[in-house]
Specification:
This protein is about 30% helix and about 30% strand. The chain is an alpha/beta fold and about 250 residues long. It has a seven-stranded mixed sheet. The protein has a four-stranded antiparallel sheet with strand order 6-7-8-9, covered by helices on one side. The chain is globular, with a radius of gyration of 19 Å. The structure holds S-adenosylmethionine (SAM).
Length: about 250
């Protein structure tokens, strides 16, 4: 099973309803991010759209742009939007990758939640340039400090979450180890139990770049952005005023 297929099928059941103790989506520091909600706000890589709905509900008058390249994830996002008319009418879903897709010319903030480690080095470079292009001065990229397993390599297999639907209990087991070339192999095992017995067993493996925060922060173009530590879970990467941009206006 592809990792995205497993997340499409099991992800929301394992996550929802959001548990404030465990899910960082419950405590996103919107105020410190200082999003400028009179301009469009971007959700980069929203997956099935849990974060898109949180973003849209936090800023009930804002236009939202959700950029999700994976077809399965985007399909779940579309369903989530279809069922929420108040969010649907002001959310545009873009099927491309963030470093290349069309975006509104001026945006008021971008949420980058559990996504940076899916981007390769060149993609990250293009991503920051893209953000420098579209974010107005003072707007930020609100980035979760999750870097694909860096610092927690070689994790022994452990149960990390579970949820039930009808008679079935869904369990996610997690293990990871360093591959020695900068990547981390993450093994997720999804087990479905009925009456305590495993009736289905799916395993996925991904090898994201296990990036350290120093590396990520070093790559941010300092001429365009300032880096603010909000708390142990988030950084705000804030767009500096830019002389060239002001002159263009
Ligand atoms: C771990 S999921 C995070 C989903 C969501 N932000 C959340 O935390 O609930 C990472 C998402 O990033 C998306 N992604 C990967 N590369 C991307 C890119 N270049 N541009 C935009 N999204 C990307 C993936 O398709 C996936 O849905």
């Amino acid at each position: 099973m592809r990792d995205y297929e497993a997340w499409a099928e099991f992800g929301d059941v394992l996550r929802l309803p959001i548990d404030p103790e465990r899910d960082v989506a419950a405590s996103i520091p919107w105020e410190q991010a200082g999003f400028q909600a009179h301009l469009p706000l971007i959700d980069v890589g929203p997956g099935s759209g849990v974060t898109t709905v949180v973003l849209a509900e936090t800023f009930p008058d804002a236009e939202i742009v959700a950029v999700e390249p994976d077809l399965l994830m985007r399909s779940l996002l579309m369903t989530r939007l279809a069922e929420r008319s108040g969010v649907r009418e002001r959310t545009t879903v873009l099927p491309g990758v963030i470093q290349e897709t069309w975006l509104p010319a001026e945006c008021g903030g971008a949420l980058l939640f559990n996504v940076i480690y899916f981007l390769g080095e060149r993609e990250r470079e293009r991503f920051w340039h893209r953000m420098a292009d579209v974010l107005v001065p003072g707007a930020s990229v609100l980035m979760s400090r999750s870097y694909g397993g860096a610092g927690e390599v070689d994790v022994e297999r452990k149960l990390v979450s579970s949820g039930t639907v009808g008679r079935h209990e869904y369990q996610r087991w997690y293990a990871s180890h360093a591959l020695g070339d900068g990547r981390v192999e993450i093994i997720n095992q999804f087990q479905v139990l009925r009456d305590g017995e495993v009736v289905r067993d799916e395993e996925t493996r991904i090898t994201p770049y296990g990036l350290g925060e120093d590396r990520i922060v070093d790559e941010i173009p300092v001429g365009a952005f300032g880096i603010e530590e909000i708390d142990e879970r988030y950084l705000a990467i804030r767009r500096h005023p830019d002389l060239a941009r002001r002159k263009r206006r």
